[in-house]
Amino acid sequence: MKKLEEYVRSIPDFPEEGIIFRDVTSVLQDADGLQLAIDSMQELINDLEYDVVVGPESRGFIFGTPIAYNNHKPFVLIRKKGKLPCETVSIDYDLEYGKATIEMHKDSIKPGQKVLIVDDLIATGGTTEAMIRLIESLGGQVVGVVVLMELAGLKGRERLSDYRLESAIIYPGK
After folding, report:
1. Catalytic positions, written as ranges
2. Alpha carbons 82 and 88: distance in angstroms, whole number
3. Dihedral (CA of 139, 127, 124, 7) sign
4. Is 24:70 a contact under the CB 8 Å cutoff?
5. Which domains does the chain carry?
6. Nearest to residue 128, comparing CAs of 61, 60, 82?
7. Burial of 112 (0-12, 13-18, 19+ CB in 10 A)
8. Is it the case that residue 174 has pLDDT exceeding 70?
9. Where are the beta strands (DSSP E) in 25-124?
10. pTM of model > 0.85
11. 121-150 pLDDT, tens per residue?
């Protein structure tokens, strides 16, 4: 059986020279790769107690939903501004080259709920930090973050040192 890392396509010099882009679509396009990804991520948090799974648009939906389903937990969406139909809470945060806003439904997290965040990638940790602040603004308690891939060279783990972070694959560089 192949290792999870073998399903990830690495594309040199994208989006700019010196960067190695880790392409998650190659994992998703292979049934064995997708199953291994979900199983590997879920195994990392088997001991974690949580009430709800939260995932950001769009790849957090892909990985978070099966984990929520497998563990009979609700799944909550975090989306870009203007995509959710009901009353929302939002947060602005800085990106490497600009700003972004994410939102979630105001009634999606109840005070005291233990929350697991699921995503495909952690790099600098900025988006994850914004999600945590958004969840906490509703009274939720983030008990863990699980990702398929971590780009350790960008130090997102250090930024999120107060939270449990699990990564199925850790790449040392950017």
Report:
1. 59, 96
2. 9
3. positive
4. no
5. 48-171 (3.40.50.2020)
6. 60
7. exposed
8. no
9. 52-56, 75-80, 88-95, 98-105, 114-122
10. yes
11. 999 999 999 999 999 999 999 999 999 999
